[in-house]
Amino acid sequence: MIRDITIGQYYASDSVIHRLDPRVKIMVTLVYIISLFLFDDFMGYAVAVGFFFLAVVLSKVPFSYIVKSHRAFLVNLCAVSKVSGNSQGYRLFLYDCEDSIPVSRAYRKEVKMLIEKMNNR
């Protein structure tokens, strides 16, 4: 479980990004975050996404390693056939689907309330 946490976790690699001075990395990160708030059109966001992918390529960190911790789902609650789990977390099962969708502890109360509301209709 702990090895699945990638946010802030160091990935050892010999890359241009890894060899940069830490102050440069902090400043570039701050400029990047501020620029995200200043963009108001498609081109600005396209440049930001391009910069992000360039940083990933230059850092030599596998893209799957980055994506692993960013799983988000939109769920049509009308398609939920079964809910299983306990206070540690829920899993949603959908009609005609063998896979289940995990619900984090942060959202379990909200999801439970929404599903109960859907069932009461």
Structure overview:
It is built from 5 helices and 3 strands. It is of the alpha+beta class and 121 residues long. Strands 1-2-3 form a 3-stranded antiparallel β-sheet. The longest helix is centred in the middle third of the chain and has 18 residues, at 42-59.
- The portion of residues assigned to helices is 40-55%
DSSP summary: helix tally:
5
What distance lies between the first and last C-alpha atoms, to the nearest angstrom?
Answer: 38 Å
Instruction: Report strand %.
Output: 5-15%
Largest sheet: 3 strands, antiparallel
* Strand segment count: 3
Let me know the average pLDDT: 80
Note poorly predicted spans. none
Record the strand order, biggest sheet.
1-2-3
Q: Assign the structural class, choosing from mainly alpha, mainly beta, alpha/beta, alpha+beta, or little secondary structure.
A: alpha+beta
Order of helices and strands: HHHHEEEH
Question: What is the general shape?
Answer: elongated
- Roughly how many Å is the radius of gyration? 20 Å
Short description:
The protein has about 120 residues and is an alpha+beta fold. It has helices at about 15-20, 20-40, 40-60, 65, 110-120; strands spanning about 80-85, 90-95, 100-105. The chain is about 45% helix and about 15% strand.
